[in-house]
Write a structure and sequence with these properties.
binds nicotinamide-adenine-dinucleotide; Quinone Oxidoreductase, Chain A, domain 1; binds zinc ion; Rossmann fold; 7-stranded mixed sheet; 6-stranded parallel sheet; alpha/beta; 2 domains
Length: 347
């Protein structure tokens, strides 16, 4: 595939095909990056199987992939912060820079953000992409491109732990042992949580959480609130990170949190929440908050990996070559319980 820009293109539901696409140029302020690693996200697999997430509808052909790292091969005019040969992770959402949200420090909420693999914008499952240099973050020598690709989901976990205000000694409850729950577990531990309880309903996923140091609860088989009471001596947890996002998990979050505790709603598993008990929300003065992706967190996240504070390698389920991308998606779609994160590694 050398010298050409081949893309792995979603041409119909469950159908990925390789097609040659134009070789991009590094425009002013941009880099040209050769892709080295791309993580397959839950959202990519969802578009692959269903062609839409909420109001974002795929218009075929469409290119998936937004968690990526690679090597800088060309610099556009005026790029001074990087050089050819640098390995970088790309922050995949480029905001407009001019709207109220951008100008008030909430660039992650920019309504005009161009985010890889979010319709109508193509993703990065191809050999070369051009990208604004200010959203390309250099990887230190001891951080691999696979780890670089995983900076994206890890940023969400770090955002969750920081938004929840996780502190030294805290007990944290996490709903969901999918990729987002697991990166939140790693982030909560790195922020100093002494105990992290992770609840899910899939035993294989709970096993991964346990390996990462969590106290695990299968809420289908065990009474979660009883377990929380046991672990905290009846006090409740300091912080809840709901990385599942169902009425049942938000309800349990309200019941499991200690007075003046914080709940962060990260998951979007359900369109609407029903039956959330208002009594304890008020009586416990709970702080209930949420987050959308991340902002200004790439440098922090890369430093967390570089320093060894967070070992992100444990979330990789399997690696595939670029040519095996269709298999990587098929395997993630067919075996969700066994798959935390498939990663495409380019030759
Ligand atoms: N807010 C954001 O910016 C943001 C970013 C990325 C993902 N998300 C959302 O976060 C959620 C998690 O993402 P993911 O990729 O890990 O998804 P995932 O589907 O792989 O993981 C969700 C997990 O929740 C578990 N679950 C379902 N019901 C449960 C219950 N009652 N109790 C405990 N666990 C339960 C599932 O078994 C699954 O393992 C999704 O809803 C996703 O849309 C939000
Ligand atoms: Zn992702
Ligand atoms: Zn904007």
């Amino acid at each position: 595939m050398d010298g050409k820009n081949m893309a792995c293109v979603l041409t119909a539901l469950n159908t990925l095909e390789f097609k040659e696409v134009p070789m991009p140029k590094a425009g002013p302020g941009e880099i040209l990056m050769k892709l080295e690693a791309v993580g397959v996200c839950g959202s990519d697999v969802h578009y692959y199987q269903h062609g839409r997430i909420g109001d974002f509808v795929v218009d075929f052909p469409f290119i998936l992939g937004h968690e990526c790292a690679g090597t800088v091969v060309e610099l556009g005019e005026g790029v001074a912060n990087l050089k050819v040969g640098d390995r970088v992770a790309l922050e995949p959402g480029v905001p407009c820079g001019n709207c109220e949200m951008c100008l008030t420090g909430h660039y992650n909420l920019c309504p005009d953000v161009k985010f890889f693999a979010t319709p109508p914008y193509d993703g990065c499952l191809m050999n070369y992409v051009s990208f604004p240099a200010e959203y390309a973050f250099p990887l230190p020598e001891n951080v691999s491109c696979v780890e670089g690709a995983l900076v994206e989901p890890l940023c969400i976990g770090i955002n969750a732990a920081l938004t929840g205000g996780v502190q030294l000694g805290d007990t944290v409850l996490i709903f969901g042992a999918g990729c987002i729950g697991l990166v939140s577990l790693l982030a909560a531990k790195a922020c100093g949580a002494s105990r992290v309880i992770v609840s899910d309903v899939i035993p294989l996923r709970l096993e991964v959480a346990k390996k990462m140091g969590a106290i695990t609860v299968n809420s289908k088989e065990e009474d979660l609130l009883k377990k929380v009471a046991e672990v905290t001596g009846g006090r409740g947890v300091d912080v809840v990170l709901d990385c599942a996002g169902f009425s049942a998990t938000v309800t349990d979050s309200v019941r499991a949190a200690r007075p003046a505790g914080t709940i962060v709603v990260v998951g979007m598993g359900e369109d609407e929440l029903n039956g959330i008990p208002l009594g304890p929300i008020s009586a416990k003065e709970l702080i209930i908050t949420s987050l959308f992706r991340y902002k200004n967190l790439y440098p922090t996240t890369i430093k967390a990996i570089e320093s060894g504070k967070i070992d992100i390698s444990g979330i990789v389920s399997k690696t595939f070559t670029f040519e095996e991308t269709p298999q990587a998606f098929r395997s993630a779609a067919d075996h969700p319980a066994e798959t935390v994160k498939n990663v495409i590694v380019f030759k």
